[in-house]
Design a protein that fits this description.
The chain has helices at residues 31-57, 73-86, 94-120, 140-166, 170-202, 210-218, 221-227, and strands spanning 122-123, 133-134, 138-139, 232-233. The chain is mostly helical. The protein has one domain (18-233). The radius of gyration is 20 Å and the shape is globular.
């Protein structure tokens, strides 16, 4: 972790400065900045989780939460949440950010798990086997990981990422942002539709219209088992392979 004293500071404010070119299209806390934080952290999160699972379990798992591309929405939205809540605390003590990140991250992870179960009748993770868990949705250990991530993010990674985003030329950055926004919206919506239809198939529901027939044809169980290898439908006690 970069020591706070080694980072440039705003004069008289006691807080690390984020170096951004004056002409940057993503200068300050605007949509462009937050989208690139979401996009890049979604990608990096999926890659990091894949590497972590390989190193700890010797398994190569697809840790993406969407169908097209390696993107973990939980990581991406988590990075945006931490940025909005903690970016003004960069000059404060690490302990304060750690505690805030632990509480906020644990709450966020719980709500994500609950939302997945409500929308799709499934869970992408289950911490029931880990001590100090709450309904298997979150546990103290991983909540503390969120706290560490908040400190590292605000004190080191976020300023570096801002500098990287600031190097994207405005002429390319603005249209590229909106093209990627449309892509991510499509990816999220088609993934949600495929998961919803997958849940319906588990209950034996036949396709009710041409859209559901197309979802069954393009996203059969075999493909979704491969794309969402960690997903478990609630109430099944585990699911069979393809």
């Amino acid at each position: 972790m970069t020591a706070i004293g080694s980072l440039p500071r705003h004069r008289g404010r006691g807080r690390p400065a984020v170096e951004e070119p004056a002409c940057s299209f993503a200068r300050g806390m605007n949509y462009y900045k937050l989208f690139w934080v979401f996009f890049l952290c979604s990608f990096l999160g999926a890659v990091v989780e894949t590497i972590f699972m390989f190193l700890t379990r010797g398994e190569i798992q697809d840790r993406s939460s969407v169908i097209y591309g390696p993107f973990s929405l939980v990581w991406g939205m988590g990075a945006v949440l931490f940025t909005l809540c903690f970016h003004r605390l960069a000059g404060r003590r690490d302990l304060l950010i750690f505690i805030g990140g632990t509480v906020l991250g644990g709450t966020y992870e719980y709500l994500c798990s609950w939302g997945q179960e409500v929308l799709f009748g499934a869970r992408f993770w289950n911490y029931s086997h880990i001590p100090f868990n709450i309904n298997g949705r979150v546990c103290l250990l991983y909540a503390m990981f969120w706290g560490v991530a908040a400190v590292v993010w605000i004190k080191d990674l976020y300023p570096r990422l801002c500098a990287l985003i600031g190097r994207i030329p405005r002429r390319a950055g603005v249209p590229l942002t909106w093209m990627l926004t449309l892509f991510m919206l499509f990816d999220i919506l088609i993934s949600a539709a495929a998961l919803s239809r997958w849940e319906a198939r588990q209950m034996g529901a036949p396709p009710a219209n041409a859209v559901e027939e197309a979802l069954d044809r393009h996203f059969p169980d075999e493909r979704l088992y491969r794309d969402f290898s960690t997903l478990t439908f609630v109430g099944e006690g585990g699911r069979a392979g393809p």
